Amino acid sequence: MTVDLDTGYDTSPIVAPDGAFTIGGGAVVKYDGLGGIQAPMSNFGQTGSEDAIKGLFQLPSFNLGNAIDVLGQALSQLPLEALKLLGQLVPDWLEEDILDIGTAVSKILGALNPSKIPLTLEGFTAWLTNTFNTVSTELRQIFEIVAGWVVTPITAAVQGFKDWWAHLTGQTQHLNETGGYDAGQLIGEVAKDAVEGLVDLGNNVAGAFKGFFDKWFGVTTGTGTAAEVITTVEAIKDAVINGWTVHTVTSNETNWAVPPHTLCNGIVVGGGQKGDNGTNGGSAVGKIGGLDGSFLAQPIDLTGITNLDFQVGTQGNKSYIRVANTTTPHTGTVLLASPDHGSEGGIPGEFGYAPTTSAPGRGGNGGGMGTGRDIAQQGESTAVAAGGAPGGNNGTWGTPGQPGGSVSAGATTKCGGAGGGGGGGAVQSLNVGGNGGDGGYPGGGGGAGGNCNGAPNQVGVGGAGAVGVIWVFYK
Fold first, then answer.
1. Does any domain span residue 282?
2. Does any domain span residue 186?
3. What angle do CA 74, 101, 76 make, to 5 degrees?
4. Are 362 and 272 within one domain?
């Protein structure tokens, strides 16, 4: 106990247990300075219960549903000066507008917009499912519609946008990249009879195209289409070389009418030979590639002859130009025949036939087996076609030769195809040899197959010889 000597009052702090005190109503004792009690004092003119005092600072229980209301009740118990201090945290707080506690509390609570308060996990999940996913899908579908994709709208709003976009693009689809209208799109949009003379012009152009086609091919079946015009132009381009008209024959033809002319030359290329198959005896000597179909150009005297018969050489056969026999095709008098296979061939000159690099190429030989074996050979190249690459081996069996290069029958300079490459021989017993490459068109010889040391069906198969061709030049 501590006593104030001037006043005589006990100044020791009194600690009351919770629930057992009354503020302002406790007994305060005055001492006489000699250790005696002078006078007890009952109170200081005020009393307060525990519940009343705790009610000043204790809040009722709250949850997510009533938290804002409870906060409002608590704020309402604070003085206006304290609320103004809190108001400094409110972005649009103007102190001159805050005249009382109610206004201040409303302003503070208004800043706590529920849209600014983070959602619970369940609320956020529901927002993703019901709102965000739908909106994001709608936006994605709109972008896909603009990009030209096929879209099945998920909402009426997207369907409306799709219909609007289709209408808009339907109005602008014929604009060119500079924003102008493509005049070619007027066709089908403007009636022909709406333009003076357009119908007659179209009929005249179509009639001219029909005559162009019919005259060139000697028929009356032309219709004047663009496709017929293209076909005719291509035929002229192929047929007219340095003043000569060229008739190209790629398959057998009978009773070809001889046109009026003063000069005529024929070129014949026979069908190339097939390459030899490899052997299964394990021989080191490679088999032989097929011979080419040869090439011969020569003038033809067609005096008194009205029709010709053309027989194009297939694999291993010659090509012929004959006088037509209307009773039995390919039996008339021979006017020109391709030379024997592998012949040098040639082109006639003032003093005889000059050798030519226009002849087709021979096929390459196949590969052998064992020590000192023959290596597969490349096919023979021509002036404009590369010979087929030879086969080899992968350490076990032979690999195939490649086909020889081909030449278009419509090429300006007439030339034969290259020979196919020979197939590689097997390395180990009971493994296959490589096949030979096919000869290039026209007239190229096939490459030989590679050898093996196994069953007969394991040898490399020789490449096929290419069919021949015939050209007739006249003017």
1. yes
2. no
3. 10
4. yes
List, for residues 228-252, the tens digit of each pLDDT value: 666 666 666 555 666 788 899 999 9
Give how many domains the chain has, as a whole number: 5
| Residue 371 tokens, joined | 């020590």
Note whether 379 and 250 are same-domain residues.
yes
Task: Read off the pLDDT of residues 301-342 as tens digits, 9 standing for 90 and up.
Answer: 999 999 999 999 999 999 999 999 988 999 999 999 999 999
Q: What is the tens place of the pLDDT at every residue in 375-426?
A: 999 999 998 899 999 999 988 899 999 999 999 988 877 899 999 999 999 9
Which range is least confidently modeled, 179-183, 342-346, 368-372, 424-428? Answer: 179-183
Q: Please state, in angstroms and rounded to a whole number, the distance separating the CA atoms of residues 429 and 216.
A: 62
Residue 458, pLDDT above cutoff 80 = yes
Same domain, 361 and 461: yes
Residue of 401, 407, 406, 375 lying closest to 389 (CA atoms): 401
Q: Please report, rounded to a whole number, the percentage of residues in the chain having pLDDT higher than 70.
A: 55
The answer to whether the CB of 342 falls within 8 A of the CB of 333 is no
CA angle 44, 42, 18 (to 5 degrees): 85
- Which range of residues forms the domain containing residue 72? 59-116
- 158 shares a domain with 289: no
- Say if CB 402 and CB 389 are below 8 A apart: yes
Looking at the fold, whether 384 and 252 belong to one and the same domain comes out as yes
- Please indicate, yes or no, if residue 191 is contained in any of the structural domains: no
21: confidence class by pLDDT, cuts 50, 70, 90: very low
| Residue 82, in any domain of the structure | yes
Residues 274 and 415 grouped into a single domain = yes
Quick one: 474 and 396 in the same domain? yes
Asked if 290 and 272 sit in the same domain, the reply is yes
Percentage of the chain surpassing pLDDT 90?
36
Q: Count Cβ atoms within 10 A of the Cβ of residue 231 and give its class: 0-12 exposed, 13-18 middle, 19 or more buried.
A: middle
